[in-house]
Amino acid sequence: xxxxxxxxxxxxxxxxxxxxxxxxxxxxxxxxxxxxxxxxxxxxxxxxxxxxxxxxxxxxxxxxxxxxxxxxxxxxxxxxxxxxxxxxxxxxxxxxxxxxxxxxxxxxxxxxxxxxxxxxxxxxxxxxxxxxxxxxxxxxxxxxxxxxxxxxxxxxxxxxxxxxxxxxxxxxxxxxxxxxxxxxxxxxxxxxxxxxxxxxxxxxxxxxxxxxxxxxxxxxxxxxxxxxxxxxxxxxxxxxxxxxxxxxxxxxxxxxxxxxxxxxxxxxxxxxxxxxxxxxxxxxxxxxxxxxxxxxxxxxxxxxxxxxxxxxxxxxxxxxxxxxxxxxxxxxxxxxxxxxxxxxxxxxxxxxxxxxxxxxxxxxxxxxxxxxxxxxxxxxxxxxxxxxxxxxxxxxxxxxxxxxxxxxxxxxxxxxxxxxxxxxxxxxxxxxxxxxxxxxxxxxxxxxxxxxxxxxxxxxxxxxxxxxxxxxxxxxxxxxxxxxxxxxxxxxxxxxxxxxxxxxxxxxxxxxxxxxxxxxxxxxxxxxxxxxxxxxxxxxxxxxxxxxxxxxxxxxxxx
Amino acid sequence: xxxxxxxxxxxxxxxxxxxxxxxxxxxxxxxxxxxxxxxxxxxxxxxxxxxxxxxxxxxxxxxxxxxxxxxxxxxxxxxxxxxxxxxxxxxxxxxxxxxxxxxxxxxxxxxxxxxxxxxxxxxxxxxxxxxxxxxx
Lengths: 559, 136
Ligand SMILES: Cc1cc2nc3c(=O)[nH]c(=O)nc-3n(C[C@H](O)[C@H](O)[C@H](O)COP(=O)(O)OP(=O)(O)OC[C@H]3O[C@@H](n4cnc5c(N)ncnc54)[C@H](O)[C@@H]3O)c2cc1C
Hints:
heterodimer; A: FAD/NAD(P)-binding domain; FAD/NAD(P)-binding domain; five-stranded parallel beta sheet; 15 helices; 28 strands; about 30% helix; B: alpha/beta; four-stranded parallel beta sheet; 4 strands; globular; binds flavin-adenine dinucleotide
């Protein structure tokens, strides 16, 4: 079936021409056009067509298999067809969207892509999965609000859970400041959470501890802690949070009375802010070449603290020097409230920053026609961005998950898999992903925990059908596969060979289907082609190459 | 005169360069139509015979792509890809097919790099002209 994807494909590729062409290809019994291949109607229709024509292979020409293959595979399975007998021909991301000005060439390319898929699908084998027992425990790294929430959620479902915090105490960033923008104190949030974490019988808390080694894969992780203990778990959540940047070298930080927002909050709690004039500088150290991102929480934090300062002493003068201001979500109220209380806002730009010297802040206000102001101040408060904590890359390496250029963890897909990593069984929550507020961190942590539980709650794990297998008769036991394989799936075992003349011992490679991830490296390396990389066999790939590269575009006929 | 349109076989790994190609699509980055992508789980699946076969069949060039070193979904599969493709590229010189096989790392977030890689390779092959192995 060839999909229009509304106008996404059909506005560039001549879909009826592709369908007409596909109908002439060997193996093809039925080809048709569909407006949206992935709509419920269309999926039902695929099932009907499979049954009506008694199809044993299906190709859908539409979008990328990275998002839609599972959907169509399930459809095939529902119709009684092995899901591995399906192939998705990507004529959207790899064709119509990238050749918008060349409809004719794009149509020819689409025909090629479908022909290659037909060649491949004809040679695909039905594959079967295996059910295996696995470890139903969860591990959470980082004991801030996100990590504690996730660990509690998992433990409360009855699964053994380990919470690993590097610092001597739980709580994370919330230990460094005192009150939230909604008026709650940080201890109001932390105290009950820490108590619940410490009293849950399913939950083991390790403080002053790190996870230093991890091996295995989803369902069968093994980890080693810095205290030497070894743990086993099935799923992991990374919630290592963020730190407030030390704005060393910015706006006189380090000299007397130039402090960060967290330091101000501590003083506010102690009642020791002795200042009639306060200047806050936003984006201190952020949104520049080194740290190009917006740290999200600092505008709200500044509003919160400006209001607190005003409420403590309405006579105080407060100046907030900003580049852009956004107290996102419902917290725009705080901005309005700060203005009502008389907080003054002055705008600067990155190339004309305020200067702090000897108790005076000089700023050129961009909203008042570049008027220069000199503000005598008692304290300067810097709103510094949240930055990834030290060691984020090491944690990333443990689980083979990516971090972005600012060392924040990168989810598998921003919309489709927002708390997943591409690595199975590993999830993320909180400010480890990007700066966010407490409530957002908590709800994301619950989302990550429910994703983890969706795995832990299974009775058995299903292995993928896409794995490599060894033909013992062909294997010469050279061990190259063992050398190239990162997870230790192939192993050499001693086998006894009995023939009519002699009986002898030799070595043969054996691949553990529970560990094999189907990369196919061992198959490419095997000098005797004893290893078959299922779903990506040499024969299948060769057929696809032939289907394109042969000038006549022929497809090998198979029995 | 018939314009020479190079036929190029392109290998992409599921986790990085295939996703990079998807991202180029999502971003509507336009590039020449000459490549046909063959997806494998890891670039380390690509055995040298695939490249030779593509060229023998009449492809004018073969572009192999995968994750950057250190980013491989299978830890270090691409290290072996680099080794194998290094040998293939050397062999091409002996076969008079220099410049027709190229290895490039493209990550899942590098849509623009995907576009550039394809565009540059197509230009390179266009400049080289049809493969001497092309069936007439
Ligand atoms: C000054 C300031 C004021 C703020 N004000 C507000 C506010 O008013 N309202 C609001 O909603 N939000 C506010 N925030 C944001 C708030 O701090 C975050 O939303 C929250 O801390 C995110 O929680 P988390 O659990 O994701 O990360 P964190 O609180 O950073 O916790 C992460 C934990 O992981 C641990 N860890 C890190 N690496 C490892 C490792 N390798 N192994 C083990 N453990 C590790 C850390 O020690 C830490 O305990 C403020 C932030 C700052 C800096």
